[in-house]
Design brief:
Length: 445
């Protein structure tokens, strides 16, 4: 097999979508058109839309509901925790009943919970509705990844994940801007009205445009016990666990940036809110561009393990530079070098996150929903733990952010090297093996 993992056109199921037992090639080609990419991208953009569009309204929520800021912050924590835990439930459900039914049910509950948020009379009700919103919204995240695994193998799967990065990477750029503009014409409740409308549009798109991608023959008939057994078998696969943990801790470094950068850029380095918004947008653009380079240039030409190693190394180097600047080792660092280091760190995420997902999902075929759930829940739970740590020393030092980012990046690199063993091409999966090799989780090298 060539270094990029692609084999000859006649023998490689990685080069084209899988069609399943009942789907002819023409049907598969329709499934993978631009409209499907937009639908799946919209589903993966649910977390940044639900989280970031709401951020500008937090001070107004505090005043409107007469609640302390710490309690209002729980509305973010509840949504994040719901998205993490919901994936563990919805993923196995989609392996048993197919992708469409759990996804449509999840979107229906998501729309209802979001609408209830708009009418929450107290902050306690808002926290409860946000938890329900996160639990239901998890369906879009986990099933979108499972659908990609249903349709693609290997190189094509990695490329498609990079395409999704284009859409889900734009969402954090526009979500706070949309939220700010909504507050110009209405109050914070209007943000949830808009999110409700977005959920309805996504539900309509899934109902009319997303076919079932998991045929009945590929579904699991068992209940909770079988789902837990499938997850246990996945976690017993050393390589799958390595990619999952590497992606989770890289995600933690990203969450540390999202949580701390408003205070670091504005409070410590004196930037205006407009300057912060510009830098935040530029960093998100860097992530999107790097993801497109990964999917259109690197995938198929360079082993994904090598690309992933470069991405993790860049994150470590950027976090190290940030820590040195925060401690003053490099002298009095201004905003420009700090912004440059953050740009490198965020851009490296564009070649790290899609490749950890693709390489992990390559290890499994028959439990793609459970595997996707483990990937998502691990990332969100580790990120949820990392986020509060960045403020442990207050709002006037960047050291905690840099320490959390560097520690997370080093753990991610250690998990990748120690568990995935990328130098061992037979066992690591980094060359994107054929489906037969990918069906054997737990295989030792």
């Amino acid at each position: 097999m060539p270094e990029g993992g692609a084999s000859t056109p006649h023998a490689s199921p990685a080069a084209v979508p899988r069609t399943g037992p009942s789907g002819p090639p023409t049907r598969a080609r329709r499934r993978t058109g631009p409209l499907l990419t937009l639908v799946l991208g919209g589903l993966t953009a649910t977390p940044p839309l639900a989280m970031d569009m709401y951020l500008p309204s937090l001070p107004e929520v505090t005043r409107s509901l007469h609640a302390p800021a710490a309690t209002v912050q729980l509305t973010l924590t509840a949504c994040l925790a719901g998205m993490a835990l919901g994936q563990l439930v919805v993923g196995p459900m989609s392996d048993r009943w197919g992708r469409r039914r759990p996804l449509l049910a999840g979107l229906a509950v998501y729309v209802l919970a979001t609408a209830l948020c708009a009418f929450a009379p107290t902050v306690e009700f808002l926290v409860a509705f946000r938890l329900a919103q996160g639990l239901a919204g998890a369906a879009g995240i986990v099933i979108a990844r499972a659908v990609v695994r249903d349709l693609y193998d290997g190189v094509a799967m990695a490329r498609f994940f990079s395409s999704l990065m284009l859409i889900s990477g734009v969402a954090p750029i526009v979500a706070p801007l949309i939220g700010g503009q909504i507050l110009r014409v209405t109050d914070w409740r209007g943000v949830f009205v808009v999110l409700t409308a977005v959920g309805l549009l996504l539900g309509a798109a899934v109902l009319t445009r997303l076919p079932e991608t998991l045929p009945a023959a590929g579904r699991h008939g068992g209940g909770v016990g079988e789902a837990l057994g499938a997850m246990r078998r996945l976690l017993a696969d050393r390589v799958f666990t390595g990619y999952t943990l590497a992606g989770g801790f890289a995600f933690a470094a990203l969450f540390a940036y999202i949580s701390a950068s408003p205070f670091v850029i504005q409070e410590i380095y004196g930037a205006s809110p407009q300057t912060f918004a510009l830098l935040f947008g530029l960093n998100s653009v860097g992530l999107v561009v790097a993801g497109q380079i990964n999917g259109k240039v690197l995938v198929g030409r360079v082993r994904l393990d090598r690309v992933l190693a470069v991405g993790l190394t860049l994150i470590v180097l950027a976090a190290t530079a940030l820590l040195l600047m925060a401690y003053g080792v490099l002298g009095e660092a201004g905003l420009a070098p700090v912004a440059a280091a953050l740009f490198v760190l965020m851009s490296a995420m564009g070649i790290t996150l899609p490749n950890t997902q693709a390489l992990a999902l390559t290890r499994t075929r028959h439990s793609a929903g459970s595997a996707s759930a483990l990937l998502g829940a691990t990332s969100f739970l580790i990120g949820a733990v990392a986020s509060p740590l960045v403020g442990i020393a207050g709002e006037h030092t960047a050291v905690p952010m840099a320490v959390v980012q560097l520690a997370a990046a080093l753990v991610a690199l250690a998990c990748f090297a120690g568990l995935c063993r990328p130098w061992n091409t037979r066992g690591s999966g980094g060359a994107l093996p054929s489906p037969r090799g990918a069906e054997s989780p737990g295989e030792e090298s």
